[in-house]
Write a structure and sequence with these properties.
Layout (H helix, E strand, L loop, with lengths): L1 H11 L3 H8 L4 H11 L7 E5 L5 H10 L4 E6 L2 H14 L5 E5 L12 E7 L8 H11 E12 L5 H21 L3 H5 L1 H7 L3 H10 L4 E7 L4 E7 L6
Parallel strand pairs: 1-2, 1-4, 2-3, 4-5
Antiparallel strand pairs: 5-7, 6-7
Length: 234
């Protein structure tokens, strides 16, 4: 499944940002800014953006940590990382963002390395959500926060019906026009499989996060899981 998803994201890289605009009704930038704020990244921090895609969240983190900070953007799609690197050169060249091709289930970082972390629209697509959260916990410093943004199935039946209608009647047809029907048809089943807010909280607590809060946004069609790693380095 991992190789299949990796292949999908490599293929959609050229139109990834445009499709995100359509999928979120143009609101994803607002939600990403909220996630970065909840990560509590500040000047001088070392920050991590998992499943970084074309770099939206990583670029926002870079503005927060400033010239004395460092940002690492991680993704398994080489095509998206190439796009992110090109964007960073003209959007926000300082500090340089390290773009790393890696699996979020096996991060190439030391324990207790990062002051803050984000993930945007990635947790829903990982092969093992618990393992991904465990790796995130490992690489965060004690006292660090992480904010994970993703699409969800809303609890309200009318909103669920609207979401499905929008996917079926707009997103997939547009993707089909661009020759990417199969690539975006996976969204609906991925939403069906994705744990809801309280289940995400429980998974996070099982891997060690002492504080976990899930904030529904966009009438429950979106959510941000905010995690805190407590304690001190011994």
């Amino acid at each position: 499944m991992t190789n299949e998803i990796q292949s999908i994201f490599n293929r959609i890289a050229p139109v990834y940002d445009q499709l995100n605009d359509w999928l979120s009704l143009g609101q994803h930038r607002i939600w990403k800014e909220m996630a970065v704020k909840w990560s509590a990244a500040k000047s001088g921090d070392t920050a991590l953006d998992l499943c970084c895609g074309s770099g939206d969240l990583a670029l926002r983190l870079a503005r927060r940590v400033g010239a004395t900070g460092q940002v690492y953007g991680v993704d398994f799609s080489s095509n998206l990382l190439e796009k992110a690197s090109l964007r960073s050169q003209w959007q926000y060249p300082q500090p340089a963002i390290a773009w790393i091709e890696a699996d979020v289930l096996n991060l190439p970082f030391e324990d207790n390395q990062f002051d803050a972390a984000t993930m945007g629209y990635g947790l829903r697509n990982v092969k093992d959500i618990s393992r991904s959260l465990q790796e995130l916990y490992r690489v965060l410093k004690p006292g660090a926060k992480a904010a994970i943004l993703d699409f969800h199935r809303p609890n309200n039946p009318q909103l669920r019906a609207f979401q499905q209608l929008y996917l079926d009647s707009f997103v997939v047809p547009v993707a089909s026009y661009l020759g990417l029907k199969e690539e975006y048809a996976y969204i609906s089943p991925s939403l069906d499989r994705f744990p809801i807010g309280r289940e995400q909280i429980e998974l996070a607590r099982q891997v060690g996060f002492a504080v976990a809060t899930h904030y529904p946004i966009a009438n429950g069609m979106m959510g941000v899981l905010v995690l805190s790693k407590l304690g001190v380095i011994s």
